[in-house]
Amino acid sequence: MAVDYTVIVLYLAGMLAMGWWGMRRAKSKSEFLVAGRRLGPAMYSGTMAAIVLGGASTIGGVGLGYQYGLSGAWMVFTIGLGLLALSVFFSARIARLKVYTVSEMLDLRYGGRAGVISGVVMWAYTLMLAVTSTIAYATIFDVLFDMNRTLAIVIGGSIVVAYSTLGGMWSITLTDMVQFVVKTIGVLLLLLPIAVVKAGGFGEMKAELPTSYFDPLGIGGETIFTYVLIYTFGMLIGQDIWQRVFTARSDRTARWGGTVAGTYCLAYALAGAVIGTAAKVLYPKLGSPDDAFATIVKDELPVGVRGLVLAAALAAVMSTSSGALIACATVANNDIWSRLRGVVRRDGDDHDEVAGNRAFILVMGVAVIGTAIALNNVVEALTVAYNLLVAGLLVPILGGLLWKRGTGQGALASVIVGGLAVIGLMAGYGILANEPVYYGLLASLAVYVAVSLATKPTDEAVLSTWRERLAGRSAELKSEPVPAHQ
């Protein structure tokens, strides 16, 4: 394992070096939080694919393939569909808004009535997303070094917190590009063909496994529908995803770069399911489907390649973890703390804002590591996060983008009712039940429409400003001057 250890250590050292380099670039709030809004198509596509394809998509995607066969691709496939929908239909408009958070978009659209409450919902989602990614370090480091769970979480989490705190979005962008390349080589170009060959090829796999393993809908229609509702729609509204859209250099970059990333996700989904299916042939009686990835890597790959593929898994976890962490800190600082303190941004205070956001990343990082150590069930934590996000924020966000008659009162009521409904329903039906997000979303929609129609339409001056920003005819806030080279 010495060669494998060397590969992993070099990879982790490289991540920290990227963080140090990124620190030299992040001199303003715009540079620190959204990489100066100047990523080109290649970097934008790579970093977007990196953040959405995390540990759940890699380790969990292979596990679903082990359990259900090719239909296990549906979870990651719906993530790709969501990213495609976001890129084709909404990303250009989102990028033109020149905001930093989803709550700022809601304030701009509705006249400043839903910011703090929507910020709390988004903060809870991004926190739990960062926590679930951080928990996954324990699995990878256990395979690598036979390491204690708590120590693995502390080491992995500390590296992500370090490079994220140092350089903000510039560091995360650079590390995500490396992680994208490592994942592509490790999972798609190495593990996928090796796993199929070791399992005897597709002919042998079909002979060894039930026909349901090759049924595209074998996982079940209700499960697929739930994946679409949670992950496809979740991709449309998550702060971690929007913050990447804000980094795009232009509308065209956001649209086409995101489309490339979404298409990549579809290929990654199928690859994970095929690897899991091959693992089922090789190891038919594993204790848990989630052990499939680590087992096939540890037992079937040659020295050196094994280290690279494990680095790919680590890259998948780190990219999602860092993206969720900066999103969590951005929301906590800009949407909650600053609003509660009544802070007004002033010209010339960029350095202070960078220092403040850097401090929030550090604080939120410590909170994420502590929460990850305390929690055990990754699936439940992730389900709570996405249920809150979809039931609480999907309707007011899409309503604001698509329905002129939606009002601030309707948006606020929708966030509150949808959030409270899904929490209550999870308590009644169980966290992993499908009903909470179904009924919570319906309640949110009903309240949004009813309250919006019952209240005075949004002020025309607010809508006029909103249309100007959507059209890209209004410059970014004065305290964030747009560099000449943009």
From TrEMBL:
Lineage: superkingdom: Bacteria
GO cellular component: plasma membrane
Pfam families noted in UniProt: SSF (PF00474)
GO molecular function terms listed in the Swiss-Prot or TrEMBL record: transmembrane transporter activity
InterPro entries for this protein: Na/Glc_symporter_sf, Na/solute_symporter, Na/solute_symporter_CS, Sodium:Solute_Symporter
TM stretches of this protein: 6-23, 44-66, 72-95, 116-140, 152-173, 180-197, 217-238, 259-283, 303-332, 359-378, 384-403, 410-431, 437-455
Chief location category: membrane
Record keywords, A-Z: Cell membrane, Membrane, Transmembrane, Transmembrane helix, Transport
Keyword Translocase applies: no
Membrane topology (UniProt): Multi-pass membrane protein
Gene Ontology biological-process entries: carboxylic acid transport
Compartment(s) of residence: Membrane
UniProt family annotation: Belongs to the sodium:solute symporter (SSF) (TC 2.A.21) family.
Protein name per its UniProtKB record: Sodium:solute symporter
Annotated organism of origin: Streptomyces yokosukanensis
